[in-house]
Amino acid sequence: MRAAPVRAAPRHRPIRRAPPPNLSGLFDSPKHNLIGGLAFILAIVVMATLAYMSQGWSLRDAFYMVIVTLYTVGYEEVRPINSNFLYFLTIALIILGCTGMIFLTGVVVQFFTLNQINKIAGRKKMDQKIEQTEGHVIVCGLGRVGMVLANALRRSSASFVVIDENEARIAEARAAGYLCLCGEATGEEILIAAGVKRAHALASCMPNDAVNILVTLSARALNPDLLIVARGDKQSTESKLMLAGADRVVLPEYIGGERIAELFLHQESARLMDSLEKSHGFQRALRNFGMDLQVYAVPPRSPAARMTVGALERQAKGAFFIVQINRSDGDVHLNPPENAILQEGDAVLTLGRPDRAAAIGRLFEPRQHGGARSL
Questions:
Q1: Does the pLDDT value for residue 250 go beyond 90?
Q2: pTM for this entry
């Protein structure tokens, strides 16, 4: 007889139990705790008020009873507690309500305390980053001009620190990830805190000319080698800013007017400048080589009028080269020859050294603000 085959005992698969819910992060957020505490107290108030009203109490008496019990004021009851339901209801209200109020009070204290701690820690961290920053740009004033400048610096990956006395604008700058300090830029202490002695450049973009002059004076006294570009609202302020120590003065209103005139009078130059302004990499490459593109108009009775390209470049002593001439009749000459003569009303695109912009501008229209628009 054949032995019956021995069957292996069935293997029992281990029962997989679901892991317990992770509650460690439930109470980590003060904001969630605050919302939860408020929701719990609100639920207790609503349910207890409805429970008292179910026993014939008015809405005013029921709500008053709930409030004085929650806040443990201890005033006498507005109505007698004369039934078992009211006794148990009041006891439950005391236990749950007082516990919820204790929890909510602790959460409120935690919420505001942690916010203050985070602000202090964030400021210390920002101060440390500013102390480690070198060769940066300091932007004084986060108005319309200052914000545009800060955004442009961020797009170009340049390091910069902004200063403004408006706390709301500083909060927006912090939220955007900018290194910033809150205070008046005219003070030497805040300029030193912003690293003015280690900075490469400073832009004073305040809307007040007098404040820009004070900022320029303070910054120049702290760092004689600092490149300072100041904003001016009035054309008569430029000379004062230059005397205060500014290397360049920008007049936004005049620059805007010149830009509109270029769009009307020299459309080809305007298109070329627009294309170059959109090419940030090209601009950075030019600046790395110490070069800059500028557009000049040739007005009547200017030194450049009726001069040849070669004579004008020789007179400038290598400060710039003329790469394009836009005639007043619409003709465009790329890479013009040396014997090409500049006429009144022409527009000239030059490639030159940015530190010689003022000297170059004197060869063209002798405008008080330099006569050039730099990229």
A1: no
A2: 0.46
